[in-house]
Amino acid sequence: MSLPTRHFDALIIGAGGAGLNAALQLASADLRVAVVSKVFPTRSHTVAAQGGVNAALANVLPDSWHWHMFDTVKGSDYLGDQDAIEFMCREAIPTVYELEHAGVPFSRLDNGKIYQRAFGGQSQNFGGDQAARTCAAADRTGHAILHTLYQQNIRARTHFFDEFFAVDLVRDADGICSGALVLEIETGEPLLIEAKATLLATGGCGQVFRTTSNAHINTGDGAAMALRAGIPLMDMEFFQFHPTGIAGKGMLITEGVRGEGGYLINKDGERFMERYAPRAKDLASRDVVSRAIVTEVKEGRGCGENGDYVMLKVDHLGEAVISKRLPGIRESSKVFAGVDPVVEPIPVFPTAHYAMGGIPTDRFGRVAVPAGKGEEVVVGLYAAGECACASVHGANRLGGNSLLDILVFGRLAGKDIIDFVRENPYRRAADSESLDTAMSRLARWDQKGDGISVQEMRAEVRKCMEDHAGVFRTEEIMQEGYKKLCELRERMPEVRLRDHSRVFNTARVEALELENLMDVGMSIAVSALHRQESRGAHSRPDHPERNDQAWLKHSLYSMEGDRMDYKPVRTKPLTVESFPPKERVY
């Protein structure tokens, strides 16, 4: 069949902060850039980021990018690549000022400077007193940034394909990435977009867990596309559970609440974090706080009828502070928890929040895969944001570093693509075999007959992941989970669509997302099963210690045979002394 085809200099899949910041660089350089998004761009999940973006501006307390770097390396449990971390922390300062000049309405101090709040895991002077590093627009920072970037892209005449679903990457006859096959959701018709360079910026995969702070769109599409293209995923065992999701629902209550002075209590009214992190208390690193909450509940100190959550107390801050600094949290608490935090505490429990791992890249956003004893760049393919892993977060991300990650590496990927396209000006046509493989993904869902429903299979996958790859993991629990996932994967061909219509058939999109969830879920389960230590967000009571001798290395999961490989951590920064691993206490 002849397929409608469009040609661009660059294709960006995903319209969150990373994709839009990259697109802005490209469009401003007069390149023809296409941005494909399965939702309207301002519905991308960056819009849900609440607390802020880290940068050592020193507007409130003394600060330095070097201290920020130390906190990020320590927060990563020493698994982060120190060259990429140094680069990100240095770039943070000009990045925030660039956003300010683009029109992001940051909250202000009385002197007119950008307001900065305290956040978890951040310190002055290499582990000293609490720092105030997180630049905030009330508690809607991601919302403010995403809308500003979208407006700037409209001004730069970026070409948007809104409500198009990316099915798969395609290659030319030489095996080089030449764009993607996408599905127009409105009509159900496929479209081939050919480009000289392709950037995956599809965000996270939190929907692989049943209780999550992530939107329904976060189904790991980019990571799964990379897996199917033969690219391994890195460090997928490290999945962050945010300590304060609304109990039983999963919606996010920002760490900014604790940054403003809120604190956690158990059923006895005790500020229990003092026992787990005597110095940082409620502003310890996220993995530390999440484990503390789960431990309190397990040991019978949980709140409520079933004792299955703890309370986040903020009423002592007063209505004026809550209304000014945390208006969105007050609204969320009223709607989803039925409480007004001005009057009573918010019931919270850890919720699946963020993937530290992803598609392996260098710090320029170029996808890099193992080759011999080193690595080689995948020509023409880039990744940035949560779907990528430049390894600035290692085993645990610090709050406020995710917005920073998408902005810094989205921008840098955009700049590198400009150079790549100028050096490779000729169009690459998609190979017919590659195109047939991508089209077969769509054709598979045209099969009729009885079978398992997409919703049923999705529910089983998500329950399996939540039960077997949660905050605490043991060999027995994970083996059982892997076995269940393998059984579910074998039953995938039995899954059938009930609705075969073309026009705006969201059931078809959900079926394609299910395949992505299955592949990404398997990468998390297998990677976690193999790592026999406790590090950052990966906590194993059967291996309670961190083992730097055996496990100070990045994991690489490949789909073929569920194979695991490993590569070393880059411990050498760009210009400063390395931070050697030491015990991580708060």
Automatic annotation (TrEMBL):
It is an enzyme of class 1 (oxidoreductase). Residues 9-403 form the FAD-dependent oxidoreductase 2 FAD-binding domain. GO terms for molecular function: electron transfer activity; flavin adenine dinucleotide binding; succinate dehydrogenase (quinone) activity. It catalyses: a quinone + succinate = fumarate + a quinol. Keywords: Cell inner membrane, Cell membrane, Electron transport, FAD, Flavoprotein, Membrane, Oxidoreductase, Transport, Tricarboxylic acid cycle. One of its GO terms (cellular component) is plasma membrane. Flavinylated by SdhE, about 5% flavinylation occurs in the absence of SdhE. The active site is at 286 (proton acceptor). The keyword Electron transport applies. Coiled coil: none annotated. The keyword Oxidoreductase applies. Belongs to the FAD-dependent oxidoreductase 2 family. FRD/SDH subfamily. This is Succinate dehydrogenase flavoprotein subunit. It comes from Thiorhodococcus minor. The gene is sdhA.
